[in-house]
Design brief:
This protein is mostly helical and 404 residues long. It contains 16 helices and 3 strands. The longest helix has 58 residues, at 145-202. The chain starts with a strand and ends with a helix.
């Protein structure tokens, strides 16, 4: 890498130029050895505009699958006794994604400059979470980096599979609901007004449900555009509000309060908490640090707040099971009891592993049940809705025809 510098020499004379070095720290050290006092230092860029634009990526991060593959490759190379610097150089050269190639190149430069692997990874939080970095740091201290990266690959793969299963279970009902709303809107704004005109000309007494349908259809035709604008504007402000701390907390609480879906998400977050805690405690990371890291990666503000409050109480000398006992709505009694047993027997890591597997099975079973039930339920609701709509307008027409 090339660095542009401005400095003062030993005589106090201003000078400038470029310095080749693997990292900024290495460039500073080289210039200081020359007896220069640095006043400004920046990365020199000799790329043309097209080369620069080619390295810009819209998505500043990598997928869980890519991170799993990367972790497995690193573990395999460590098992083959390849040096850390050589590993990241090789992976950077073979990487097709520009963003990840740039990240791996920077990591290898940091390693060449004398930084540890965990410290180098920590500079890229969009790719490597606090949990990932701390697990690597524990692997460095124990000398088992190959096992650490292999474990991380299995953990991320397991977590991604569980999260994807829960998310994918909601895609189908969302699609059905979207189809239902689209069909009903089309019928109410295009079909029903034409049929409604025929019914109105008949002069017969209309049932209440028919008058409701015709009135709603008239409202959509006359004011539908304003309703759409109101929904778009409301959605925009709701989205903005969800990005604020109070809004994000409200969204997290709503996520856990939806019937059945809330229980599914609760088990998903409990799985994540137990799995993270087990992984870190088994690697020798302290309970305080494990709680702190888990709070930052749990993915729900409600559970993050619970973990941070538990962290403060554990620092004050309370046990983990005692701190979770007061959150009986969010943390089931069975989990608190298992944690207490683990603390009393000194097998907290194993207990957390069993809890993680238990809740993982619970999530899988809940998702399978949801998928098996939601398809027929939604189809029935769709059929009933369309059937009610058609009956509301076709029955008056039938009555008119029979009275002629």
């Amino acid at each position: 890498m090339e660095f542009k510098y401005e400095a003062l020499d030993q005589n106090g004379k201003a000078t400038s130029g470029t310095q080749s070095a693997a990292t900024q720290d290495a460039a500073i050290a080289s210039l200081q050895r020359k007896g220069l006092t640095i006043t400004a230092l920046s990365l020199a860029s000799s790329k043309g505009i097209f080369e620069t634009l080619s390295t810009i990526t819209i998505f500043s991060g990598i997928s869980a699958r890519a991170l799993v593959l990367l972790s497995r490759q690193i573990a395999t190379l460590f098992e083959a006794q390849v040096s850390a610097l050589r590993i990241f150089r090789l992976l950077a050269e073979q990487q097709e994604k520009p963003y990840l190639r740039e990240v791996l190149t920077q990591i290898s430069d940091d390693l060449q400059g004398g930084n540890s692997i965990s410290k180098s990874l920590a500079k890229h939080p969009k790719v490597f979470s606090d949990f990932y970095v701390n697990m690597v740091r524990a692997g460095e201290e124990s000398g088992k980096l190959d096992q650490t990266f292999l474990f991380l690959a299995d953990y991320i793969d397991r977590s991604y599979e569980l999260t994807s299963k829960a998310r994918n279970a909601l895609i189908y009902p969302a699609f059905i609901l979207f189809t239902f709303v689209s069909v009903m809107s089309l019928m109410l704004t295009v079909v029903i007004p034409k049929i409604g005109a025929i019914i109105s000309e008949s002069g017969q007494e209309l049932p209440l449900y028919t008058r409701i349908i015709l009135g709603f259809s008239t409202f959509l035709v006359d004011y539908g555009i304003f309703l759409v604008i109101a929904i778009i504007v409301g959605g925009f402000f709701l989205f903005r509000y969800s990005k604020t701390p109070p809004g994000h907390m409200a969204l997290s609480r709503l996520q856990l309060s939806v019937p059945y879906i809330g229980a599914l998400y609760q088990k998903l977050y409990l799985t994540r908490i137990a799995d993270n805690m087990h992984a870190m405690l088994s690697s020798g990371i302290s309970a305080v640090r494990a709680l702190e890291i888990t709070a930052s990666v749990v993915g729900n503000d409600v559970y993050e707040q619970i973990l941070r409050e538990a962290l403060e109480q554990v620092k004050a000398g309370a046990s983990m099971s005692q701190t979770f006992l007061q959150y009986h709505n969010e943390v089931p009694a069975i989990m608190v009891q298992m944690l207490q047993i683990g603390e009393e027997t000194g097998e907290l890591g194993n207990i957390l592993e069993r809890l993680a597997k238990f809740y993982q099975r619970e999530v899988t079973a809940a998702v399978d049940t949801l998928v098996s039930l939601i398809e027929p339920v939604l189809i029935v609701l769709l059929a009933v809705g369309v059937g009610f709509l058609l009956a509301s307008v076709l029955l008056p027409i039938y009555n008119t025809a029979t009275n002629i």
